[in-house]
Each structure stands twice: as structure tokens, then as C-alpha cells.
Design goal:
Chains A, B: Belongs to the ROK (NagC/XylR) family. Two copies of one chain form a homodimer. By secondary structure, chain A is an alpha/beta fold. Chain A has eleven helices and 15 strands.
């Protein structure tokens, strides 16, 4: 399964034949009802610029495949015969999203309407556990979720997994996940073979969640998130920019002070040396441990001066690294997600000061994500749902 | 005119109707013959996966419109009846490319086969001249080229202009061109109204030239060029990344040493303060003047130690800024174009040293452009040609 990361209605890569056109039009109908429904056939037709007759044929096919359902006659709000309102099915295919965190595993089920229908989380220290051991636990959770989905009348259409590491583009291989100590691990070997699979970096799925679910996310933004490391993902014209090998978005290793402290990546003075969790905890005088972000937020809120200075300095380093990123990429906004969204009140002032004094002209908005640390898990599940909306023919037999 | 900056065959944004499909298929036929011709109708059909009959209809239309021509029977190298070889027309529409430089104006005419059919260059110091005065000179050159194109049997299909400044996306407005001292200048007011117009930053057209004409340019690269300032343009999956407002690629203002010298952009320690022409000349002990890049290259080649140190330090600063860019963007290669290509022997070693010691893993190739300072002019002319190949219906009446 390839995740399509577009905001546009889909199946754009299908061949340009009658058959390809039909598949694209099925996708356009389904996307339109998903976005704007309930809608009558006439409402769909006027939105996508096809005839009412053409839309009716497509709708019938989508109903037969269990992707659309009729809600009954619309209220007669307008002149003319009332049409029957259409909605995407709440009992059709569903996306299974999963997250491998350093401290936890999570799985959820999202239906075509975007509702979370089941969810399971397990706290577990995954540091230095093998991929095989971690994925055995994850598979157990996935199977439990598949059973629950079935009890709700849903059919899992695929499984997408967010991991805290670099994933080679177009593969299921985690090339490097430093905080798990995983290298070149092909995850497909240890996962249920019956579900189409996608594996991607957590920052990418977090950015996609922001694009698809966020409050008014623009079509161009840089999504910055932090858990243990600092990751970023670029959305350009409504599409994720993955880089030639899938490694784009390594904001944590942008040099801030070129002769600063050595970094595990081999560089010096990388952003992570100033704004990564470990660096901030050290500067704040706090030991490492579970859920340090909550502790930092608590202490900063209580007025702890050392913690506030540590966060202010981290915000300034973020501002310097982001100056480079904004100059290179010209995003409409920088969105702070993950742990950064919880620490935003103490990071943002110094971050905006640096951006403001360094960038000429209108610069770039800095906004805080409304999704926060749920992003990667929801982004993964929705990636499967989008894949169904983008090519319903994968389901319509 | 919108320049399509895609490497893929075009008209991808046309509506998904029979008419849209026909326009896309005309484009696919024309692109295929342009890329691989001379070709028979059967050769085209097998390459694009349409029937021979469908291709024949499309070809007839393109011949009637003067976009394709028949070269006569192919050599009977294979079994069966020889087909007639098709080529794109050498007497059809042509692209007019123009460049506004700080020290010169240039215009050229490129035919559908990609051949430069006419060219004019005028040395003129454009610093602090008004857009109106500069564009009056440019218009005179353009009119002369239109006449020469006509004498060659070519019909100009549009005019594209490369400028050394930021151009607001989707407009003809130069928002800021510091070395010309232009601000918010809508160029369309002073240019021939009869030609469809495109205006873009010189670094963007330089990168497109590299994409379309370079020796084996990959589909993902960061093109870095310098004349007076330092610009960059990102090509991602064969498309130019313009940024939300058209301002992406400002590599010259990525912070290298955050508390370094003040920059005209308002920031501190920007790359231009270490690797821009003015900074390098100062470090090399050379006064400003005409064609300083040639002087730098000459002195460096002759073993001038001060010049070599200045270029080595500039290369190191480039390497630090590019470390950030490569971590963010994961391009397949960094391509050095414009003035940088002439200075590459003395810049590249320190640049590669910095990249090599800072970036973990396979990193990124550094290659020198084979096109050099002609890039922006050729890129502009080819942008017009590509617009014709992408939507021949703009020409087929």
C-alpha cells in the first residue's frame, strides 16, 4: 500500500484511459461526499462538474461496494423533488493506525467518516528491545483491534505504522531509529501478512494528521514536533515532501552553532544539542525519566526560573534553525506539534523573536497544533482511509 | 501563461472530461516525439499505451496545427510495412526567453526541438535604473528577436523573463530585487502585450534548465547558483518547489554563524556574509568591478594564496548552510551552477569536507553544472516550449 499524502481528491496517478477515468471519478464522488456530505446526487454532480446521470451510475457502484449509504430523503429545503441524501458508510472499510513509541504502543481503528471506532494503548519500555519482540506485542494489539472492528461491522482495509526513525521511501524498512537502537529492520516480516501495510516516520504521519484534521492548516506548512528527538515534516501544496530517499525533515540536525557540542549524528552544534529533550532536561537541572515533558510544563507553569530559561534558550535555537528552513522553503506557517505544543507558552516568545529579527518581509506564522501528541497515530489510520477514498476500485470489485 | 515545471508529460491539471483527456493525450504524443523522436505512429503508440488508431487521430491533429511534421518513410529496419517518421516541427511555435542581469540583458529564441535559433545580448549596467527604462531596452531586443524568429518560419508562443529578485508566485511582480533596487514592480506594464508572459527568479529558471537540459540531472536536487547574491532552487520529484508565496530557495540568508556580521536582509551571519561575491572579494583583497568571477578564477588558478583561502572559507560556509538544507530536504544531489560552477575547483573541497563530517549516512552528491551561466536564459525559453508541449490545445485550434 502506498499512502497518498495529497489533500486533493485522488487517484491522480492512474493511467489516462476510460478505465482510469472511471476510477478517478469514483474517487472524486467518494471524496466529495466524505468532505461535504450528506449530499444528494445532484449536489455531488454540481460540485464535481459531471452530469447527474454519470454521478448516479458512480454512486450506485459505490453503494453496491458498501462505501456509500443512503440516509433517506433530504428535507425539502429547495424547489423540486427531494433527492436521497448520501453519506460515506459507517460500516465499510476502516483504517488501522499504529504507533511504535519509545515508551508505548498504540493502535486505533478509524472509519471512512473519520471517527475513531476503537483504540488500545499499552505502556511498555521499547528501548533496546528487538523489532521482533516489539512487533509481536504490536501484532497482538492489532489483532485485538481487528476483532473489535469486525464487531462494529467494519472491514480493515490496511495497517499503517508510525515509527520514531527514518524509513526508506517506498519500503517497510526502518533504516535508523536511534532511540530504539533499530537499524535496517524490515518490519513487514513481523506483521500480519493479510493487511496491506505502510510504514512511515512519526513526524510525517503527524504532519499528515495536521493537514487532514487540523484546524485550518494551510496547504504549505512546516510541521515541527518533538518527543525524544526533534523531527519536522514539510507539506508543500498539500503534499508531503519526503525527500529522495524518504529522509527529509531532519530539522534536529540543522547546524545552529557550527562549532557547538558534538551530536550523535556525527555533526556539531545541531539543533538537538540545544532543543532536544535531553539537552533541555540537562539545562533545566532535571533527571531523565518517564513523561518529562509533563514535568517541564508543570515546573515552567509554576514559575521555576531554571526551567523557563532552559525552554527560552531552546526556543531561541529553534528560531535560528527555523530561520534557515523558512528562507529555504517559504511555508505559509510553522506548526508546533507533539511535545512542543505542550511547551509552546515558554518556547514561542524567544522562537518568534529570533524569526522576527532575522527574516525580512512578512515572514511566517507560528501556530500551535490542536492535535498534539495524538497526531502520528491518527495520521497513520487516516492514511489508510485516504487510500480507500483515493482509489475505491481497490475495494469495488 | 503559467510555466509548468514538471518533468512528466503534461497538462496534468486539465479537468477530467473527454475533452480534458484528449488534451492530455495530445500532450503525451507531442512530449513523446519531442523526447524520443523521430518515431513512427506505431512507435508512439507502444510508448504511451494507446492504440495505433487513437494515436493516428492525435498525430493528424498535431500535424494540422504545425506542431509535428512527417520526415518520410523510416528505414525498413524491422519486419512489416515501414511507418512514416514523425518529428516535432522546426517551424512551429517557439519560446522567447529573456534575462535581466545586473550587468546585461539577453534574449533568445528556442524552437520545439530545443534548438536555439536566435540570440541577442547587450552589456548594460542596470543598477539603479528604473524597471521602465530597463524593460524598454529589453522590449527592443525582444522585438528584434521576434522578427528574426519570423524570418526562420517560427511563431513566438510566449515570453519568459528571468530576473535577479523575488517574484510573487503566479504574478509578474518583482517584489524585491536588491541589486537592481526594484520593489513591487509589475513588469507586465512595460512589455509587449501580444505575447503571453511569465516572470520568475533567475535561480528558478536556472534549476529548470538543469532539470530539462542538464547531463543526467536527477529528479531531486538542490541547484545552488551565485551571481551577485546566492540563490538556490529546489527540484523535488521533477518539480520546482516555489514556496507558498514564490520565495523559496533563499539559501543566501540561511544563518551560518548566528551572531556573525549584519546582513542587508535584517539577519546576522547569513551565508551571503561569507560566500556572497562582495564578501569573497573583500576576503580576497580585490576591489569590486566587472566580471569579478573571472578575475577570482584566474587568480586562484595562478596560485594566489589569499584568493584560494577566501574561496576555501566560502566553500566551508556553503557546506555548513548546505548541511542544514540537505538534512531538511534530502535531495539526491547538490548542483553548483552559475558563477559557482566556474569557481568549483576551489570551493568544492572545503564544501564537501563540511558536508562529509556533518551528515551521517550516505549524504548527498555534489556536482558541477554543465550549463553554467546560460542556465536562466535557456530555462526561460524552454519554459515557454514546455508550456506548448504540455497543452498543445493552446495552439491546436
Amino acid at each position: 500500500m502506498e499512502c497518498d499524502d495529497s489533500k486533493q481528491t485522488g487517484a491522480g496517478r492512474l493511467p489516462d484511459t476510460q478505465q482510469g477515468m472511471r476510477r478517478r471519478n469514483l474517487s472524486r464522488v467518494l471524496h466529495t461526499v466524505a468532505a461535504d456530505g450528506p449530499l444528494s446526487r445532484a449536489g455531488v454532480a454540481s460540485r464535481i462538474g459531471l452530469t447527474r446521470a454519470a454521478v448516479s451510475t458512480l454512486v450506485d457502484e459505490l453503494i453496491r461496494a458498501g462505501l456509500l449509504e443512503e440516509l433517506g430523503p433530504e428535507r425539502p429545503a429547495r424547489v423540486g423533488r427531494p433527492g436521497s441524501a448520501l453519506a460515506v458508510s459507517a460500516h465499510g472499510p476502516a483504517g488501522i493506525g499504529a504507533e511504535v513509541g519509545v515508551d508505548h504502543l498504540a493502535v486505533c481503528v478509524v472509519d471512512l467518516r473519520g471517527a475513531v471506532r476503537a483504540r488500545a494503548v499499552r505502556q511498555v519500555d521499547n528501548r533496546a528491545r528487538t523489532p521482533k519482540a516489539v512487533l509481536a506485542d504490536l501484532t497482538a494489539l492489532v489483532r485485538q483491534m481487528v476483532v473489535e472492528a469486525g464487531q462494529e461491522g467494519l472491514r480493515p482495509a490496511g495497517l499503517a505504522i508510525a515509527v520514531p526513525g527514518l524509513v526508506a521511501r517506498g519500503t517497510h524498512t526502518v533504516v535508523r531509529a536511534p532511540n530504539l537502537d533499530w537499524h535496517d529492520a524490515d518490519l513487514s516480516a513481523w506483521l500480519p501478512a493479510e493487511l496491506p501495510l505502510a510504514v512511515d516516520n512519526e513526524a510525517n504521519f503527524g504532519a499528515l494528521a495536521e493537514l487532514w484534521l487540523g484546524d485550518a492548516a494551510p496547504a504549505d506548512f512546516l510541521h515541527v514536533s518533538a518527543e525524544i528527538g526533534i523531527g519536522a515534516a514539510l507539506v508543500v501544496d498539500g503534499r508531503l515532501l519526503r525527500g529522495s530517499r524518504g529522509f527529509a525533515g531532519e530539522l534536529g540536525h540543522v547546524p545552529v552553532w557550527p562549532e557547538g557540542p558534538e551530536c550523535a549524528c556525527g555533526g556539531r552544534g545541531c539543533l538537538e544539542q540545544y532543543a532536544g529533550e535531553e539537552a533541555v532536561l540537562r539545562a533545566a537541572g532535571l533527571p531523565p525519566g518517564a513523561d518529562r515533558v509533563a514535568v517541564l510544563a508543570e515546573r515552567a507553569a509554576a514559575g521555576d526560573e531554571q526551567v523557563r530559561v532552559a525552554l527560552r534558550d531552546a526556543g531561541a535555537a529553534l528560531g535560528i534553525a527555523l530561520t534557515g528552513a523558512v528562507n529555504l522553503l517559504d511555508p505559509r506557517a510553522v506548526v508546533l506539534g507533539g511535545a512542543l505544543s505542550r511547551l509552546a507558552p515558554w518556547l514561542v516568545p524567544s522562537l518568534e523573536d529570533e524569526l522576527g529579527r532575522r527574516i525580512a518581509g512578512p515572514g511566517c506564522d507560528v501556530v500551535v497544533s490542536s492535535i498534539g501528541s495524538e497526531g502520528p497515530l491518527l495520521g497513520a489510520a487516516h492514511a489508510v482511509v485516504r487510500a480507500v477514498l483515493d482509489d475505491p476500485m481497490g475495494v469495488v470489485v
